[in-house]
Design a protein that fits this description.
alpha/beta, single chain, 5-stranded parallel β-sheet, 5 strands
Amino acid sequence: MKSVLIFGSNSDLAKRTKIFLKKKGFTLLEYNKKKLDFLKINSSKKIKKILIKENPDIILNFAAVLGSNSDDYKDVYNVNFLPNWEIVKHYMSLNVSKNVKIIFIGSTSFKKGKGNYILYSSSKAALHNLYQGAKEKFKNTNVKVTIFHPQRFKSKLINKLNNKGKFQNINIVVNDLLIKIL
């Protein structure tokens, strides 16, 4: 069965997605913040070691931080953007013989910045541009890159906003993501 490498495996969306992937028989290779903290200096090297060791068929990175305007930009970009770049960079250095699918988890805020969360929105816009470039770079190879911009749903990240408004049911969001995975 195919293996799925999951970074940020304790996020709300990751937890729900893992339930369905297990039911489908995927082998899950889980890395949460305790196993791999993207804010640590050596996280880039660890990402590469994990990719070599696990040799996954599918990679999902659910790790994210909200990043308000008072945060250090490195703390936001080191979680929301850098790990994805390290994944892309790793596969650019290889001649990949098996099919590999990389799925970035974005945000609908990538297309419209939020005044109080400029760093978050800009990191997700950078991620979207990374996706576009990587998709072009890996065209006609065994590496397929896609991005999933989930609709707003109740999560620990959103709850920090104390935000009101319309939210999608998380199970519908997971179903939309599964279409990209399967």
